Amino acid sequence: MDPLDPLDAQQVVIEYARTLERDVTESRHPARLDSLPYAKPVIKSAICTSAKNLAVSGQLTDELRDYLETAYTLLAEYLDGELVDLMSEYRQSAEQLAVESSSPRDKTQTAAWRTLAESSALAGEVARAVTTEAESLRSEFRSLLNTEDTKDTKGKPVC
């Protein structure tokens, strides 16, 4: 698949959209990087190609632009498996402590409390890194549609 070819790019975006929809529906975010149908750079290029191709042809509606921007930005939430496991364990421990009816003192003696105490700094760093990458991707997507040169000399969108 060539993510710079509009037809191939469209297929990449469709496959990624299916994966994204499944992961969002099943609350799998952050999700495993290896669950993506293609590598992040391929998906980024495909979304870029598709967005620019749609913009050049006048078919990029506000709704479609927002969808593509969201999909592009959500690439930040695809992480290495170890980080996804850490974040999942952290979230599960927090949820477990939230529903337990025991006293605060008793809660501090649980495995869930230990998990939170031992992983909170790293989980916070992962969350900050994902947020930073998402903000960067959002800015990148917005700037790619604001460039004057949207086509190369052969008429293909430039990404």
Commentary on this structure:
The protein is mainly α and 159 residues long. The chain has one domain. The protein is built from six helices and two strands, in the order H-E-H-H-E-H-H-H. A two-stranded parallel sheet has the order 1-2. The mean pLDDT is 90.
The unreliable regions are: none
Bin the strand percentage. under 5%
How many β-strand stretches? 2
Q: What share of residues is helical? A: 55-70%
The Rg value, from CA coordinates, equals 20 Å
* Order of secondary-structure elements: HEHHEHHH
Please report the distance between the alpha carbons of the first and last residues.
16 Å
Largest sheet entry: 2 strands, parallel
Mean model confidence by pLDDT: 90
Choose one word for the global shape.
elongated
Can you tell me the number of structural domains? 1
Number of helical regions: 6
Arrangement of strands in the largest sheet = 1-2
Structural class: mainly alpha
